[in-house]
Design a protein that fits this description.
InterPro entries: Homeodomain-like_sf, HTH-type_TetR-like_transc_reg, HTH_TetR, Tet_transcr_reg_TetR-rel_C_sf. This protein is mainly alpha-helical. It is built from nine helices and no strands.
Length: 212
């Protein structure tokens, strides 16, 4: 049998699948930027990726599944920005938390990106009933970095022993989600505006958390 006629090896098949999956995701992101999550159909994704509709469904059973994959990739990318803050946080706890929240903006700086993320956040809310564990894993990445910063300040004797790190991290995450939605809904707001508001909020939030 000629080498060209031989079936692809397991490794080649795996690489082909990875490339095909990545191409479907890239096509989906392009379509989401051009239109919206609601109006983008699986058929549109298949056409953009130049694959069959069946192939798209083989990788992603629904649009929400595509969305969750995009969100997971975004969380992984933002982990580097979170790490930069957590590795060397400012001496002030409120400032450290504000900078961590600010890191979440990433490259969402244009009206087009803001509109895309409003669609994505709404779709994530709907996806919560479809894949709650996956949605929570995405949220947990930010919360884990928050707890890491809190532990550092506790080790320095700054964070009160009465503060529950898990509860505190949930509160910071709730602030982040509220601020990020507001940021995306307001084309006029800049990343610096977001940071200034986060600083005001975290100063109030941690006022009762630190040792006097």
């Amino acid at each position: 049998m000629d080498r060209a006629d031989m079936p692809p090896s397991g490794g080649r098949r795996a690489r082909k699948k990875q490339m095909q999956r990545a191409e479907i995701l890239r096509a989906a992101v392009v379509l989401l930027r051009e239109d919206s999550f609601e109006r983008t159909r699986m058929e549109d994704v298949a056409e953009k990726a130049d694959v069959s509709l069946k192939t798209v469904y083989n990788y992603f059973p629904s649009k929400n599944a595509i969305l969750l994959e995009i969100l997971s990739a975004d969380r992984a990318r933002l982990s580097q920005a979170y790490e930069a803050v957590a590795e060397n946080p400012p001496d002030d706890l409120a400032e450290a938390l504000a900078q961590l929240m600010h890191a979440d903006i990433g490259d969402v700086t244009t009206p087009q990106e803001k509109t895309l993320w409003l669609d994505m956040l709404a779709a994530e809310f709907r996806a919560n009933s479809e894949a709650p564990d996956e949605v929570d894993r995405n949220r947990e990445i930010f919360r884990s970095f928050t707890r890491r910063i809190l532990r550092q300040f506790r080790a320095r004797g700054i964070l009160s022993g009465d503060v529950d790190e898990a509860v505190a991290a949930d509160m910071v995450y709730a602030l982040l989600m509220y601020d990020f939605r507001n940021y995306c809904a307001r084309p006029d707001l800049t990343p610096d505006d977001f940071l200034q508001r986060a600083r005001q909020q975290t100063r109030l939030l941690v006022a009762g958390w630190t040792v006097c």
